[in-house]
Design brief:
The structure holds 2 protein chains of 2 kinds.
Chain A: E1 10-15, E2 44-52, H1 57-67, E3 71-80, E4 83-91, H2 98-109, E5 115-120, E6 133-141, H3 148-158, E7 162-170, E8 179-188, H4 193-206, E9 210-215, H5 217-223
Antiparallel strand pairs in A: 1-7, 2-4, 2-5, 3-4, 6-8, 6-9, 7-8
Chain B: H1 4-16, E1 21-28, H2 38-53, H3 56-67, E2 71-78, H4 81-84, H5 90-106, E3 111-118, H6 125-140, E4 144-152, E5 156-158, H7 159-175, E6 187-191, E7 212-218, H8 221-234, H9 240-269, E8 272-277, H10 291-297, H11 307-325, H12 343-350, H13 356-362, E9 370-376, H14 381-397, E10 402-409, E11 417-419, E12 426-428, H15 440-443, E13 447-448
Parallel strand pairs in B: 1-2, 2-3, 3-4, 4-6, 7-8, 9-10
Antiparallel strand pairs in B: 1-7, 4-5, 5-13, 6-10, 11-12
The chains are: A alpha+beta, B alpha/beta.
Chain lengths: ~220, ~450
């Protein structure tokens, strides 16, 4: 369940960078560095930082990375309710492992109450952009309940469609307009869009959700020059 | 990444503010179907219309579904039938109307426009035949729309045609007396008619157009009204300059939707994209009304003092926002004030806030003109012609399009109720000054010359 009924302003977001992390450990976890990634062809790591939000977190993290001689390549940061969540992709100096970086960063950020997870970036085929896709936005509105995201995303996954961004704005209560899930997805052109739409609508109906499936261009057309 | 605000406001526009594409209109050139053999002309017209428009409705549905934006109406506009059928008799032209009606039904479009003549500088043989055929053509068919351009800023007003059309309108009404004169809801008399209107009843494909073209009419009065209401909810003292800016931004959004859908439909049909018509087009539903915008702006109802100024502001802001949003703007592009098609305007007429004279005044600052105005059934043909002449003069002198779509409702008097049904709506019958009186001015006929500012070269 995303939020308890009656809870206000609850929301969550997921956003994929080029390679998705599959961490279940949020607390000082690290993953073994794959062979061959030390040193030369690619030496990048991805870090997720979690902690109670307050001024100075980004400054502390970037300072710690600088002190480890790392270069920040991508950052995504957001606030969910009172919590800070940041994801950093950094390039590390030759010879440094993700494990080394993790220990170095943790020693600086743990005293600030920040939780760090580190893993090396992997090379290989990019499953997210394997073929031509069309971007669609799926929105659902309806009563909050357990397994909502699991049930909808299961249909999306079954059709081989990749979720690129997921947002939920749950204010609780009975007003469907107060409980909204937004899935941005890449639908491969080989996928049968009619079948996807049909299955999603069937699932939404079972969950008593109102669902909209629209090409992303409509949102950009309406709101952006 | 889209922001949740962008997504939620889009859904809000779709769900609660009636954002849609009002019409995708396929223009079909029929000039090469002309001939003097009726059956040959009929066969060629049917083949052409069904060949080009066969996929129009399914493609519009598919594109609408892809973006979650309904395309409410799919329509066809053809070359002026007075030209295509210039060699045919009025009875033959009624048969052409039946052919168009059957073709429209076959491809599932609700209206087909172009039973039209351009007579601002004189009546040719084909024009006379077409005007003579109009009453029967419109009463014998369901989907055919007619228009006659009787005036232009460059040519002046053809008062012979205006006089003739007063009689034509009365006759068309009488032939559909059982339906409150509904044939007249499908007949527009124009000054400065654009060649690319996607809206009915004035749509036809201009003589200067290509073989086929897709033109789009946007809507969005509900979106504009809600945007005003929201802004005033937050800042009740917003001044008119700020409201104009707000309407402009909203019109931009509405127009962008129309252009996106139109271009994709055109691409999928393999037909060139023509124009977006920026008009705010209401329907007879609450929340989809131009009249409600006046109330949101602070007027008691459309028609009370202040209406002309408010409409001038609205029309200008819609054009500015729309022009920025689209690379191809055309058609009528302004706010419509069709009395019976807009529930709120119809109410204003019923409550006595809106009279024929005020309607005429406000047409000087909006697109179109006296649109869907029900008048007493015994209004004389001469008086109908005189009302048309007044409306044409506004268009000719102000170098803009004006039109008259008047319905003399048979057997009913001012204050009674006329019901046309569907999109055509319903309305209280407005009183007409000197409705049955003599009018020697109109009977003089001839031409009212073009104004001095037509001499531009």
């Amino acid at each position: 369940m995303l939020a308890r009924p009656g809870q206000t302003g609850a929301e969550f977001q997921t956003r994929k960078t080029k390679h998705e992390t599959h961490s279940t450990s949020l607390h000082f976890g690290w993953t073994t560095t794959p062979r061959g990634l030390r040193g030369t062809e690619m030496n990048k790591a991805i870090l997720s930082i979690l902690g109670r939000d307050r001024p100075g977190i980004v400054a502390a993290v970037s300072r710690a990375l600088f002190q480890q001689n790392c270069n920040i390549e991508n950052v995504s940061q957001m606030m969910l309710q009172t919590e800070f969540a940041g994801i950093f992709i950094v390039s590390m100096p030759p010879g440094t492992s993700a494990e080394d970086l993790h220990h170095g960063i943790c020693s600086r950020l743990a005293p600030l109450g920040l939780h760090v997870h580190t893993k090396p970036c992997e090379s290989g085929e990019d499953h997210c952009t394997a073929g031509p896709c069309e971007p669609f936005v799926i929105t659902t509105r309806g009563p909050d309940r357990k397994g909502l995201v699991a049930d909808v995303s299961e249909v999306i996954a079954r059709h081989g469609v990749n979720i690129t961004h997921l947002q939920a704005v749950f204010k609780g209560g009975d007003d469907p307009g107060d409980n909204i899930m937004i899935y941005e997805v890449d639908v491969p052109t080989v996928v049968d869009q009619q079948a996807l739409a049909r299955d999603l609508r069937t699932q939404a109906e079972a969950l008593k959700l109102e669902i909209n499936i629209q090409h992303r261009n409509i949102f950009e057309t309406l709101h952006r020059i | 990444m889209l922001t949740d605000r962008e997504i939620l406001s889009t859904l809000e526009m779709l769900k609660n503010e009636n954002l849609d594409v009002r019409t995708v209109t396929l223009g079909i050139n029929l000039l090469d179907c002309a001939g003097s053999d009726l059956n040959h002309v009929r066969r060629r017209i049917a083949e052409r219309v069904m060949g080009l428009a066969g996929k129009l409705v399914p493609v519009c549905e598919r594109v609408g579904q892809k973006y979650g934006i309904p395309v409410v109406n799919k329509r066809i506009a053809v070359s002026p039938i007075a030209v295509v059928g210039a060699a045919l008799s009025p009875a033959d032209l009624v048969e052409i109307a039946r052919t168009l009606d059957a073709a429209a039904r076959e491809v599932h479009v609700d209206f087909i426009g172009g039973f039209s003549a351009l007579v601002e500088k004189g009546l040719a043989r084909g024009d006379r035949s077409l005007i003579a055929a109009i009453p029967e053509a419109l009463s014998a068919t369901e989907r055919v729309c007619a228009s006659v351009n009787v005036a232009s800023t460059r040519a002046g007003i053809n008062m012979d045609a205006v006089l003739l059309l007063g009689q034509t309108i009365r006759r068309a009404a009488e032939l559909t007396a059982g339906r409150d004169g509904a044939a007249c809801t499908k007949l527009c008399i124009f000054a400065n008619i654009p060649e690319d209107i996607p809206f009915m009843a004035g749509a036809y494909l201009g003589i200067g157009e290509a073989d086929a073209v897709i033109n789009v009419g946007v809507s969005g009065p509900g979106v504009v009204k809600k945007a005003i209401d929201r802004a005033l909810g937050i800042r009740p003292n917003l001044d008119l300059g700020s409201l104009s800016e707000l309407i402009k931004k909203t019109a931009y959004k509405v127009t962008r939707v129309g252009e996106l859908i139109g271009r994709e439909v055109a691409e999928q049909l393999g037909i060139a994209f023509g124009v977006v018509d920026l008009s705010l087009a209401p329907t007879p539903h609450v929340g989809d009304s131009v009249g409600e915008i006046f109330q949101s702006l602070g007027l008691l109802a459309i028609g009370v003092p202040g209406t002309t100024a408010a409409l001038a502001l609205l029309n200008d802001a819609v054009k500015k926002g729309g022009a920025f949003a689209s690379s191809r703007v055309g058609g009528l592009s302004g706010a419509f004030i069709p009395v019976s098609e807009d529930l709120n305007i119809s109410e204003a007429a019923r409550n006595g806030h809106l009279c024929l004279e005020k309607l005429e005044a406000i047409t000087s600052v909006c697109s179109v003109g006296l649109d869907m105005v029900a008048i007493p059934g015994d209004t004389s043909p001469e008086t109908i012609s005189a009302i048309i002449a007044d409306e044409m003069a506004i268009g000719v002198i102000n170098n803009k399009t004006t039109a008259a779509r008047l319905i003399p409702v048979p057997g009913k008097a001012a204050g009674e109720h006329a019901y046309f049904g569907g999109l055509m709506g319903q309305s209280t019958i407005l009183p007409v000054n000197n409705a049955r009186g003599d009018n020697p001015f109109i009977r003089r006929g001839g031409f009212i010359p073009a104004p001095i500012h037509s001499l531009k070269n």
